[in-house]
Amino acid sequence: MKQIGQILFIAGILFAFIAGIGFEHPWLPVGLLVFGVFVGLVNMVNVDTNNFLITGIALEVSASALKQFTFIGEAMSDVMIFVGGAILVVALRTLFSAALTDLWKTHE
């Protein structure tokens, strides 16, 4: 399952980049966000969520730095939408997991 999540994440980034260069549709950002959330849910089984979050944040920062270029900027904004959805799910899971762990420790 871990490999499927990684393959879906890479495929999503490639699709978002290619779609951002040559495809424009009003529902494309919504589709990328939904697919990003799905990839985040699939990647929730990964043990190393910190690595996923750090890599995703680094990708978001580098994509935002490239947004100023006309040709590549549109593609990078689509990549940011996809990665943002995946990061949101994994970050919320990590946050709730940490909060619940601390909550249960106080009641023991």
Describe this structure in words.
By secondary structure, the chain is an all-alpha fold. The chain starts with a helix and ends with a helix. It has helices at residues 2-22, 28-42, 49-66, 70-106. It has one domain (2-106).
Spans of at least 5 consecutive residues with low confidence: none
| Helix percentage | over 70%
How many distinct helices? 4
Span of the ends, CA to CA: 34 Å
Order of helices and strands: HHHH
Total DSSP E strands: 0
Largest sheet properties? none
| Global Rg | 16 Å
What count of structural domains? 1
Q: Structural class of the helix and strand makeup?
A: mainly alpha
Shape: elongated
Please, what is the average pLDDT? 82
Strand content: under 5%
Brief sketch in words of this structure:
The protein is mainly alpha-helical.
Keywords for this entry:
108 residues, mainly alpha, 4 helices, 84% helix
